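Example 9 (inverse folding). The structure is encoded as follows.
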């Protein structure tokens, strides 16, 4: 194995003390009146030998390692949420930090081991991340280190800030999109009609439904019907839409709680001879690739994965520097990607 070039090697090659070599390579040579000739000799020796400072040792002396940790459940292997990783990596790089990433596959024992490994490596802070927005407790060991919850809401009291999509506003915007097009009978596929009609452990379902009901309530309306789906996948969207059509053969507007449900809804509507958007307007959430594949493409509210990752790093670095605002939930806008699935009533 090739031996690492040390500061002592550079000093010896330049014919100076290790202290002088250190001062020159840290940029303090002129400040301490070390001659230009000596400085050049040290820098030449450093370049020739390929010397690289031990960043960990330097960081520990300065109280920072300029590294961050990200512990996720299945974000790194997720087709869409991987953009959260991309945003976090880019933001960390922009600020001169390296990001260590670990994935738990939802196993608490693996999560504990990953957190311990990152603490052992003296990371300056950790992001605790979820593929789908959920509520969770913050491990006690992270309460002693700058921590940010990414796409996760805290269960109980914590000092860690959280950054999540603004799902409530997305729900409001979905309902308003249809209301502004003149629709009044708006059906729901995936959750509803009552506030408690949501799949277990789904923050998105609860918040999207709350926003939809709020926007409808503002104009004196309630959902025309709601169809709870335990799993938001195409077969359940297909089945829920057939159940909807059995009671309402000519629906004019449907909100699907994600794009996979919308895929099933499209199939069921087409089987019933109904055209989108001429007969039925459809709105959805998440902006999965399939939103573009459908014909017509479904108008969908896009989870800002990359922006979430970037914002989490910014919040974490503020916590590391001591300038953070402390606990609280930061909600990022969920923009509409309009694709022609909505027509006037």
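The amino acid assigned to each position is listed next.
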């Amino acid at each position: 194995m090739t031996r690492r070039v040390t500061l002592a090697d550079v000093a010896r090659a330049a014919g100076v003390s290790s202290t002088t070599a250190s001062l020159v390579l840290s940029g303090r040579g002129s400040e301490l009146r070390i001659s230009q000739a000596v400085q050049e000799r040290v820098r030449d020796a450093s370049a020739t030998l390929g010397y690289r400072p031990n960043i960990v040792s330097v960081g520990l002396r300065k109280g920072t390692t300029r590294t961050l940790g990200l512990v996720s459940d299945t974000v790194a292997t997720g087709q869409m949420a991987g953009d959260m990783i991309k945003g976090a990596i880019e933001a960390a790089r922009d600020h001169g930090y390296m990001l260590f990433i670990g994935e738990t596959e939802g196993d608490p024992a693996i999560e504990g081991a990953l957190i311990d490994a990152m603490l052992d490596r003296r990371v300056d802070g950790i992001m605790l991340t979820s593929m789908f927005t959920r509520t969770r407790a913050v491990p006690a060991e992270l309460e002693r280190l700058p921590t940010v919850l990414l796409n996760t809401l805290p269960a109980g009291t914590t000092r860690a800030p959280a950054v999540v999509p603004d799902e409530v506003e997305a729900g409001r915007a979905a309902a308003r999109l249809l209301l502004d097009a003149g629709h009044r009978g708006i059906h729901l596929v995936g959750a509803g009609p009552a506030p408690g009609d949501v799949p277990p452990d789904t923050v998105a379902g609860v918040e999207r439904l709350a926003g939809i009901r709020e926007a409808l309530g503002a104009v004196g309306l309630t959902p025309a019907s709601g169809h709870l789906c335990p799993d938001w996948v195409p077969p359940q969207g297909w089945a829920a839409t057939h159940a909807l059509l059995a009671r309402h053969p000519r629906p004019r507007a449907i909100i699907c709680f994600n794009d996979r449900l919308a895929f099933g809804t499209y199939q069921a509507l087409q089987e019933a001879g109904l055209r989108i958007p001429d007969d039925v307007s459809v709105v959805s959430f998440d902006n999965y690739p399939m939103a573009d594949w459908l014909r017509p493409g479904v108008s969908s509210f896009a989870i800002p994965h990359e922006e979430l990752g970037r914002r989490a790093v910014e919040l974490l670095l503020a916590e590391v520097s001591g300038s953070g605002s402390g606990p609280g939930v930061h909600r990022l806008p969920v923009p509409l990607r309009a694709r022609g699935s909505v027509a006037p009533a």
